[in-house]
Design goal:
Layout: H1 38-41, H2 77-88, H3 111-117, H4 120-123, H5 135-152, E1 156-158, H6 164-181, E2 189-193, H7 199-206, E3 210-214, H8 224-230, E4 235-241, H9 253-262, E5 266-270, E6 290-292, H10 295-298, E7 313-315, E8 327-331, E9 334-338, H11 359-395, E10 400-401, E11 411-414, H12 425-434, E12 441-442, E13 452-454, H13 462-480, H14 485-488, H15 501-506, H16 516-522
Parallel strand pairs: 2-3, 2-4, 4-5, 5-6
Antiparallel strand pairs: 1-7, 6-7, 8-9, 10-11, 11-13, 12-13
Helix pairs in contact: 3-11, 5-11, 6-7, 11-13
């Protein structure tokens, strides 16, 4: 079977399209149109534009020009339009429905943010323009930086990291620079709780550290005894998420900060879940040394599918001197960008990006902050926590919460409620697709068996949450009643049916190739 670029099966020639509905003649269902890959549909001859053969053009490729056909598809304009619109209708989106992916914070992006990000004075500038012509953009970056420092109570922030993971890299590189400057380069061990997001250990290793896992206690938080036992003079840092990836506030966070500092290490806080505490807790007050903020999560920018993102990283007094260039500073009445390490105060560890970061994200984040105000941001955090607890309270009689008590901004269930039903977490998630819901985050965090992590965010209404809970409740009861096929065969109503995900992951086919018989026909 041919595979498309996602490693998913695409239609082999002369066999029914596995992605199409098989109970209609056309493969479409209602107004949901079946659609082939563009390579299967299009051909260069079908392109809607005729370009005359260039006359007398001399090649300057030195004999390296392509001899065979390039094999690009081509479609007339209306066909191209239809192709992409049909594909777009198979996409799930936050503008279509609830996106309960835990850890990802898929919330509504107010359209005001988009309007401001598209202001001609901001969208039409170029990173290589003279600094005197982009003073407004610098002021916007400086203003956003100021608010990030206020909200976190920290003295410095690097605005350039382009994602959460990139912010982690920024923070850990600053920690490494600080250790090197103190003659402490032998400190190479980084403590990482076992519930950590995968980017944490990956970042530590990327920076030349190695990871030592801290177990969770039975309440889902850092096991303090185990943590203290791991401290020593080879420890560089701890990387801790708060609220953690189980959706729980690390109650001992101040004691953890004190202990790591006393042992001569630094405290990296993964701030991806800042949306649960923004306006209520200032991480600087908790003793953190570095923390990235996912602007795309906490401050509502559309994200997913690889971008865009922005991960400004705040620093404590101890790490501020090592923050990377570039950064903006006031100069007289205006602003300037400090571009080179030699012009900077302190000892920047270097530079992470070619320019300054994600300007569009900065504009959206500042717009979100300013339109909410300090009371609005605080309320967003409170409502995010309230919504998650509403889900937890409504579903705990049919699904099994992973930990006792209330949660922060995400509700975590394990798969005990499915035991003996023949239905797995994966099957349950697939059945949700048939019900019109994007699944929650599955099998993460790894510390919880068959984890289902639900983050509703504050932008869902009670009505929407009730419909979601009614559906999950009905599914849980169906599984417990033995309606197994509803799950194991799911999804049956989606354009693509159950896929062989293991095979797709183990032997991905990354290149579409013309089916053999078509190739023969063309020759
Ligand atoms: C999203 C997330 C990250 C990584 O952020 P990206 O912007 O996706 O790189 C790191 N840690 C946690 C806990 C996250 O939820």
């Amino acid at each position: 079977m041919a595979m498309n670029t996602q490693g998913r099966p695409s239609r082999p020639l002369h066999t029914p399209d596995p992605g199409a509905y098989q109970d209609t003649f056309s493969g479409s269902r209602g107004l949901d149109q079946a659609e082939q890959l563009i390579f299967e549909r299009g051909h260069i001859e079908l392109t809607g534009v005729d370009l005359p053969e260039p006359k007398g053009a001399m090649t300057r490729l030195g004999g390296l020009e392509r001899e065979a056909e390039i094999g690009l598809p081509g479609l007339a304009e209306p066909e191209a339009m239809r192709h992409y619109v049909r594909l777009s209708r198979k996409n799930y989106a936050i503008d279509l429905g609830l996106y309960p992916l835990g850890s990802c914070t898929m919330k509504h992006n107010p359209r005001l943010n988009e309007k401001l990000a598209r202001l001609p004075g901001l969208i039409d500038i170029h990173p290589l323009q003279p600094q005197s012509t982009v003073q407004g953009a610098f002021e916007l970056i400086g203003e956003l930086a100021r608010w990030l420092m206020v909200l976190t109570n920290t003295p410095a922030v690097a605005m350039s990291p382009k994602a959460g993971a990139h912010g982690e890299l920024c923070g850990m590189m600053a920690i490494r620079a600080a250790l090197d400057a103190k003659g402490q380069s032998h400190r190479r061990r980084v403590l990482v709780p076992e519930s950590a997001h995968g980017t944490n250990p990956a970042t530590a290793v990327q920076c030349g550290f190695f990871c030592d896992e801290i177990p969770a206690d039975k309440t889902g938080r850092v096991d303090m005894e185990a943590f203290k036992a791991k401290l020593g003079d080879d420890v560089a840092a701890i990387m801790l998420t708060n609220p953690n990836t189980c959706g729980l506030f690390e109650r001992d966070i101040k004691a953890i900060a004190d202990a790591i500092h006393e042992a001569g290490g630094y405290f990296y806080c993964d701030g991806a879940n800042f949306n649960a505490i923004v306006g209520r807790v200032r991480p600087g007050d908790l003793g953190i040394d570095a923390m990235h903020i996912n602007l795309h999560k906490t401050f509502s920018t559309p994200h997913g599918g690889g971008g865009p993102g922005a991960g400004p990283t705040v620093f404590s007094e101890a790490l501020a001197p090592y923050a990377p260039v570039p950064y903006v500073v006031r100069e007289g009445e205006g602003w300037k960008m400090v571009e080179h390490e030699a012009e900077a105060d302190g000892e920047p560890f270097g530079r992470m990006v070619a320019f300054h970061g994600q300007m569009g994200m900065f504009t959206r984040a500042l717009s979100y902050m300013m339109s909410h105000g300090s009371d609005g941001l605080k309320q967003a955090a409170e409502d995010a926590v309230l919504n998650a607890n509403y889900i937890l309270a409504r579903l705990k009689h049919v699904m099994t919460p992973a930990f006792e008590g209330t949660c922060m901004h995400e509700a975590l269930f394990d798969d005990r409620f499915l035991s003996g039903t023949g239905v797995s977490t994966l099957d349950f998630a697939k059945a949700m697709i048939d019900e019109g819901y994007h699944p929650m985050t599955m099998y993460f965090p790894l510390v919880v068996h068959g984890a289902m992590l639900i983050e509703p965010t504050e932008t869902e209404s009670k009505n929407g949450l009730d419909r979601f809970c009614d559906t999950l409740e009905a599914l849980a009861l169906a599984a417990q009643k033995g309606d197994t096929e509803r799950f194991t065969a799911a999804p049956v109503h989606a354009p693509a049916k159950r896929l062989d995900e293991t095979r797709a992951a183990r032997s991905p086919v990354l290149r579409w190739e013309k089916p053999a018989d078509e190739q023969a026909a063309a020759e």
